[in-house]
């Protein structure tokens, strides 16, 4: 029952570890070992996030089902029926729901990580543990809602497929097995941008009000409510430098078999993700050292 | 292998830029940048800095309990924060050889919607325990906290006392090599405080090293084997707890056991008779810096009679707590003592209380002289002196928190079998 009894966890009576406290002069020094030592905390925080969410809301996990469906319904009415935006021949509800699968995850994780320093300021001022842990926990616990959404997705997919006049015009591909990797990609992006944002808002509290706007603008710049194929040729480069484009498009490519994404665009996104993640970790690492002083 | 000190602190310093404390907004910074750009050349550095800690160095060997004393703002909290790795020093370094657990607050990170059980795991992990360690000590933690019945109840339904007890219980079972504690003992009821002190003594006697910050001089003397004294961010004293507490007391001048009264001393009265000076004699007391319960309280004071028409005098000595609660007013004639119309001149008095029965705390001594019928006050100094009753001594056989009382009375007990 209890996983901890059979998991090899470091012996508490480990040899005395030596901690040296000094002003870090190196920008690149990062305490990976410390992060590993606190892995149990990461696990417990993920559990806490889930339990707290589950206990707090009246609807509990039902919300994770209702929210993407409601968003999909609104998108279908507004963008497909009223604005007549193309969905590349794919039935609109499943088109939006597929894009939202990764976008919602990215949005939740990004906002969570961006707010992690300020949200945990009280605890950080009283006890030391790697400041990256709550951000990691947010990123991981957001996966739980993706899992629930995946179930919703399968149900909607089967329903639409069954009622579609040409059921073979779209369909899931074997590459769908790579979906978890896509989530890792989105998680890395969310961490990278989130940590950058967290570092900046730690110093400039007023910038945290821009988060809502950033996320909204980003949604429209990412092909969630329109396919990449409908982006004019001369604007394609703009879509390509948005690393989320490749994530959302690949998601539709592997789950619906529809995309004009090129390998080159995907590589650009991957490169940017690595860069943003490293930059985020470095800046965050810099800020977290004395972050409690500017509270 | 030669014994290396378990804590080595070398010229540790922490500087705060005054403008940096508190939030900055982007607008503030842009304005500052704009100002700087406009008067180019006037590129003066921001000199509004504040050294919360400066060049503090000390060593601590395994098994020692170090007390850190100092007034508010002397740098105690900053030192603890640096050693707990909550923030980084500006310069200098510290080496901690062993697992560190710091207790700057009890129950940090409790989540109110989660149960006591869930919070024990979460809080334990926050403090650096592994899940396995918590599982192993779980029953012990629950028993120590005394909240067994509510362990599966959300913490939001706990009383504040229960929350504190649960928090301390988790922290008490950390088993680190180095424990850093900030006055958590000031919480909880008397019974729980005693439990906490007992636990801290266990930790220390178990060969672990403790760094302890407190305003309570009695607990410093009681618990610590060494002490350091911080003042204005600098280390100004290091030695045995008794030495350091003595230095702290005499330095801060809050416990003035000896005083020469001047026109600036807060006093009332018409002035025909005046107190000149007063002192408390601790020389017979083993506590040295104050009294223990049961010690001989010795007060000496000088009295200057300025008028030959002062008449019959009434003298009184008041004792009050530092908070101002009056405990007793000892009037001379209650002891059958009377000064007959003294001639002008200087007189010396000695007041002895063979068996001081006050709980450990800080007390003030007030002095009064007036006419016998009390209608005229010649001189009244409400806070002529202050002194401490320090925990310990031959009479005190248990911990005596002032939350439980101030006067130590020893009645005779008897019982009979009432069937």
What does this structure look like?
The complex is a heterodimer of chains A (295) and B (419). By secondary structure, chain A is mainly α. The longest helix of chain A is centred in the middle third of the chain and has 31 residues. The N terminus of chain A is likely disordered. The two termini of chain A are 42 Å apart. Helix content of chain A is 64%, strand content 2%. Chain A has one domain. Chain B starts with 6 loop residues before the first strand and ends in a 30-residue tail after the last strand. In chain B, α3 packs across α5. About 1% of the residues of chain B have low confidence. Chain B has a six-stranded mixed β-sheet, with helices on both faces. Chain B has 419 residues and is α+β, with helices and mostly antiparallel strands. Chains A and B meet through β1, α2 and α6 of A and α1, α2, β4, α3 and α4 of B. β1 of chain A pairs antiparallel with β4 of chain B.
């Amino acid at each position: 029952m209890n996983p901890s009894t059979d998991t090899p966890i470091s012996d508490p009576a480990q040899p005395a570890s030596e901690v040296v406290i000094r002003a870090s002069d190196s920008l690149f020094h990062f305490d990976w070992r410390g992060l590993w030592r606190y892995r149990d905390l990461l696990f417990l925080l993920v559990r806490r996030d889930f339990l707290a969410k589950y206990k707090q809301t009246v609807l509990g996990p039902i919300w994770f089902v209702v929210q993407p469906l409601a968003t999909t319904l609104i998108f279908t009415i507004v963008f497909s029926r009223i604005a007549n935006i193309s969905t590349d021949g794919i039935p609109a509800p499943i088109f939006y729901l597929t894009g939202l699968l990764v976008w919602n995850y990215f949005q939740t994780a990004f906002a969570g990580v961006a707010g992690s320093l300020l949200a945990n300021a009280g605890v950080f001022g009283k006890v030391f543990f790697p400041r990256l842990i709550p951000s990691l926990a947010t990123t991981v616990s957001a996966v739980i809602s993706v899992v629930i959404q995946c179930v919703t997705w399968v149900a909607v997919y089967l329903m639409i497929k069954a009622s579609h006049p040409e059921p073979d015009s779209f369909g899931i591909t074997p590459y769908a097995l790579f979906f978890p990797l896509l989530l890792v990609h989105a998680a890395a992006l969310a961490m990278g941008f989130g940590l950058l944002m967290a570092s900046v808002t730690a110093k400039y509290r007023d910038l945290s009000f821009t988060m809502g706007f950033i996320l909204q603008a980003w949604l429209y710049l990412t092909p969630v409510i329109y396919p990449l194929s409908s982006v004019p040729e001369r604007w394609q480069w703009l879509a390509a430098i948005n690393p989320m484009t490749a994530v959302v498009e690949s998601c539709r490519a592997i789950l619906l078999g529809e995309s004009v994404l090129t390998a080159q665009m995907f590589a650009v996104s991957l490169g940017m993700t690595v860069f943003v993640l490293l930059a985020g970790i470095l800046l965050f690492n810099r800020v977290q050292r004395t972050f409690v002083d500017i509270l | 292998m030669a014994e290396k000190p378990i804590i080595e602190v070398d010229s540790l310093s922490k500087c705060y830029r005054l403008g940096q404390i508190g939030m900055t907004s982007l607008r503030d910074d842009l304005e500052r940048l704009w100002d700087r750009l406009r008067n180019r050349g006037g590129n003066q550095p921001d000199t509004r800095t504040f050294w919360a800690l400066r060049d503090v160095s000390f060593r601590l060997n395994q098994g020692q309990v170090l007390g850190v004393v100092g007034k508010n703002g002397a740098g105690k909290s900053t030192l603890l924060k640096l050693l707990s790795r909550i923030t980084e020093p500006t310069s200098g370094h510290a080496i901690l050889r062993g697992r560190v657990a710091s207790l700057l607050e009890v129950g940090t990170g409790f989540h109110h919607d989660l149960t006591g059980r869930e919070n024990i795991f979460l809080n334990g992990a926050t403090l650096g325990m592994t899940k396995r360690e918590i599982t192993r000590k779980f029953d012990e933690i629950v028993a120590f906290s005394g909240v067994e019945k509510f362990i599966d109840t959300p913490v939001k339904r706990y009383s504040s006392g229960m929350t504190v007890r649960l928090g301390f219980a988790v922290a008490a079972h950390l088993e680190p090599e180095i424990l850093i504690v900030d006055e958590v003992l000031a919480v909880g009821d008397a019974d729980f405080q005693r439990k906490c002190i007992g636990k801290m003594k266990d930790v220390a006697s178990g060969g672990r090293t403790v760094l302890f910050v407190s305003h309570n001089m009695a607990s410093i003397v009681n618990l610590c084997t060494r002490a350091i004294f911080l003042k204005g961010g600098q280390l100004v004293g290091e030695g045995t707890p008794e030495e350091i507490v003595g230095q702290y007391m005499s330095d801060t001048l809050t416990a003035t056991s000896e005083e020469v009264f001047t026109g600036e001393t807060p006093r009332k009265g018409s002035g025909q008779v005046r107190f000149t000076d007063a002192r408390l004699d601790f020389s017979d007391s083993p506590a040295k810096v104050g009294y223990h319960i049961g010690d001989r309280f010795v007060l000496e004071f000088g009295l200057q009679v300025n008028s030959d028409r002062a008449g019959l005098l009434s003298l009184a000595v008041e004792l009050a707590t530092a908070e101002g609660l009056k405990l007793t007013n000892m009037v001379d004639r209650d002891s059958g003592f009377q000064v007959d119309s003294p001639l002008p001149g200087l007189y010396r008095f000695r007041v002895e209380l063979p068996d001081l029965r006050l709980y450990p705390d800080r007390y003030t001594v007030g002095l009064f002289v007036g006419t016998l019928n009390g209608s005229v006050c010649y001189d009244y100094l409400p806070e002529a002196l202050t002194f401490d009753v320090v925990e310990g001594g031959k009479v005190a056989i248990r911990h005596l928190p002032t939350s439980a009382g101030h006067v130590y009375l020893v009645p005779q007990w008897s019982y009979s079998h009432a069937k």
